[in-house]
Specification:
Elements (H helix, E strand, L loop, with lengths): L4 E2 L5 H16 L5 H11 L2 H9 L4 E6 L5 E9 L13 E9 L8 H14 L4 E7 L3 H9 L3 E10 L2 E11 L1
Parallel strand pairs: 4-5
Antiparallel strand pairs: 1-2, 2-3, 3-4, 5-7, 6-7
Helix pairs in contact: 1-3
Length: about 170
């Protein structure tokens, strides 16, 4: 069984570094280095992560190796993007980020974190949203296995580059 623990304020720097490393590893080839650098500087700074950990509205759950290294995390909280017009925002929460270390992929870490995140959402809302990059087929397949479905387009800015993400929804 994969042990899940809630992040503490002292984890903020490690979570921010893990997020930046995961995003860079997955998407570095898409972006101009200046756009990627600009994005990463403001995306998940430790102070923001620390504030989210301290917030009553957010939770970040971690899976660690026996040595204490982060193997993956999930960040849950209120919806913070503009949903498509026909999508209800009341009684909804968002899965903000789910990242797993390359070495931990296929080991059950993502499954454990997703199950934790869905349980977290069910305790607070009737709808769970997330966004996923249109070209991230692996992530889309993973989310669809849990019953998420595509409900619209979302622009995702990385520096001066704009990607198309998709809004996914799970009715809880």
């Amino acid at each position: 069984m994969t042990a899940i623990q809630l992040a503490k304020p002292g984890d903020a720097e490690a979570i921010a570094a893990f997020a930046n490393g995961s995003f860079t590893h997955t998407f570095w080839h898409i972006y101009d280095p200046a756009d990627l650098s600009t994005f990463l500087a403001g995306w998940n700074p430790p102070d923001r992560v620390r504030a989210q950990i301290a917030s009553d509205d957010h939770d970040i759950a971690l899976v660690r190796s026996e040595a204490g290294a982060i193997l993956g995390y999930i960040k849950m909280g209120p919806v913070d993007f503009d949903l498509p017009a026909e999508q209800p925002a009341g009684d909804a929460v968002e899965l903000h980020q789910l990242y797993v270390a390359e070495a931990a992929k296929g080991t059950g870490v993502a499954v454990a974190l997703m199950e934790w995140g869905i349980a977290w959402a069910r305790a607070r809302a009737s709808i769970l949203y997330l966004t996923v990059f249109t070209e991230n087929d692996r992530a889309q397949a993973f989310y669809r296995r849990y019953g998420f479905y595509d409900v619209g387009r979302n622009e995702f800015r990385v520096g001066n580059h704009i990607d198309e993400d998709r809004f996914f929804r799970l009715d809880l």
